[in-house]
Amino acid sequence: MAKVSGIVMPEGKRLLLNAAARLAARRGSAHGLVLREVAREAGLNHNTFYRHFDDMDAMLQAIAEDFATQLRQGIRAARANAAPGAPPSLDVVGWLFDHAQQYADVFTVALRELHGPPGPLRDVVRQTLADIAQDMHEDLCRFPGLGAIDPVLLRQAVDLLVRHSVWLCLDFLEQPERREALLDNAREAFTTLTLGVLARSKP
């Protein structure tokens, strides 16, 4: 049994999910995967697939939900561990970089599907980013100096920051040596958008 994000998962299921993510990352899309190919990539008999999933859509749904659970829980933990009184953005983005590197196949596929055709992966990834933005919005509303700003403007800014941060992860995966420069980029984006919201919120 494999344990991921506090959830115990059968080893065969984990092998299948990882294999599907590798194949999708190599192809550039999760669409068109077939179960025999996934089972072969995982080193398992194709009949093993049906012990864990009804069909390929169910597998893609599981990949998306696993991605969502890990991402949201990890970001919450990174934000909670940020230095007291400091914006948590860099701690969160730093964690995102590490997580993206550790699960590069799933992360890459999930973000590609974000702008792909309708399907379980796209729907779950979109909802996950919206949930993460809502969590961040609620935290920032409690941050000193930001409580009086227009909440609608702040939420719009947070949505942009979340999207920007996850796309920075793709840049990091391609050029990990640019980590510090990309973190600086994240810091500048946070500062610029926050100052813009503050300026627009003044009566």
Label this structure with key terms.
about 200 residues, mainly alpha
Beta-strand proportion: under 5%
Order of helices and strands: EEHHHHHHHHH
The helix count comes to: 9
Shape: elongated
State the strand order across the main sheet: 1-2
Low-confidence stretches: 1-6
First-residue to last-residue Cα separation: 57 Å
Largest sheet report: 2 strands, antiparallel
Q: Give the structural class.
A: mainly alpha
Number of strands: 2
Estimated radius of gyration: 19 Å
The average pLDDT value, as a whole number, equals 84
- Percent helix, as a range, is over 70%
Produce a short descriptive summary.
The protein is an all-alpha fold and 203 residues long.
Q: What order do the helices and strands come in, and which of them pair?
A:
Layout lengths: L1 E3 L2 E3 L1 H17 L7 H8 L6 H4 L3 H25 L8 H14 L1 H11 L5 H22 L9 H24 L4 H23 L2
Antiparallel strand pairs: 1-2
Helix pairs in contact: 1-2, 1-4, 1-6, 4-5, 4-7, 5-6, 5-8, 5-9, 6-7, 6-8, 7-8, 8-9
3D structure, described in words:
The chain is elongated and about 65 Å long. The longest helix is centred in the middle third of the chain and has 25 residues, at 56-80. The protein starts with a strand and ends with a helix. Helix 1 (11-27) packs across helix 2 (35-42), helix 1 (11-27) crosses helix 4 (56-80) and helix 6 crosses helix 7 (120-141). The chain has helices spanning 11-27, 35-42, 49-52, 56-80, 89-102, 104-114, 120-141, 151-174, 179-201; strands spanning 2-4, 7-9. By secondary structure, it is mostly helical. 73% of the residues lie in helices and 3% in strands. A two-stranded antiparallel ribbon has the order 1-2. The chain contains nine helices and two strands; from the N terminus they run E-E-H-H-H-H-H-H-H-H-H. The relative contact order is 0.11.
